[in-house]
Amino acid sequence: MNKEAEEALLANVKSITDRLDLVDEVFKQLRVGRNMVLVFQCGHSGLYLPGDYVKNWGRGYGIGLGPHPVSEVLDTDYHTDPPAITPEIQSIEQIMHPVGNSMAQVDYMLVEESVAKANMAVLASADPHMRARAGIVRRKQLDNPKSRLRNMAVAWERAGRNLVGAY
Amino acid sequence: MQPTIIQDAISVAAGSINENVIVSNAALRGLLEAPYPSRIRLLAVISATGLRIDATHGSSKYAGSCDLRVSSSTPDDPLDVVNDEAYTQAGEQMVIRATNTTGGAITLRYMLILEPLVNETWTGGQVELPPDVLVMQRGPVSVADATAALQLLDGLVFERINVPSILKVFMTQSAAGILRQVFIDQDRIAPPSTISLNNRVPQDPFDMTINGVEVPANALQQLQVSNASGGALNVFWKTKNQQLIRRN
Asked: Most CB contacts within 10 A, which of A76, B8, B118, B213?
């Protein structure tokens, strides 16, 4: 039923009853399903994962993360220092606190489609070499006061490396 | 004598190779060489897929290009053992080489345990040691739909071994649909059969699929998989070759 048809029906129903409170409640419940999608939410990051995440666990999602569905969203390990700057390191972009799969619980939930799209996690299947996800996590690390990443930039400069465009 | 236990968590930079993770921790540099003839036990896990290790004692490789289980914790003993049947003389250098092929830094958590094979009466020098077990483990390896016979060991370091050995194979798959078979040269040892469904790097002994296969010196080992499931799947595998003669 499209929006115009629904409004016409609502006007007709309201014209034949004085229980407008019940009519409003029924139509409110009808609207709950509109533009809503089922997703899984990562219990650690709050990001959303597709509605078939558990059904296709081991096929499209969670490859290598074991038999039981958990979140594949990346998280930062701030307790482990970033790698040392050695002569082999070509770019400061290679240096960051290490990342790992959060493996948090995932919960099934109903959210508006636009909200789901805006908060959908980048999946490993769409970013197999972690380049897009590492960029996102690295920006978060730069904003986190626990991070040693900004200090590493000083070390990078002391090593005579060019920092232009690094941040 | 007491064992020597090295345990560390180290980050490996994006798109880089760390030639020896033990050297990278200044506190461990005094433990680079085996202090006495010993049995080596290596356990390791990684924080995300994409980091691979090689391990050698002296000039002998005992773990070749190994993928590891993804975990946010320290390695579980014995489930995360990469190899616990390699043997070193005193003074050989311990090397764990880590390669990160991804765009993000990844944590390697490892334990290297040296169990002495001599007692307090040992006065130095070499002792007779058993032959090493050679280990390779890989995964995830994507197997496209309608793949008939993908040879998993093709071009890898222990595909042919120059001494006779006994082969064990461990395998898992990410979802149902993979069949495996094993050939030694042209002899089919194991016909197509399904494998464990654990979606992670195989663990010894849970995911064993082949055991006790005699491999002559320089024979070609072929571990083949097929996928007729209707979609791409991933396979994980581990081979252990118990050499029957020590090479050095």
From this structure: A76
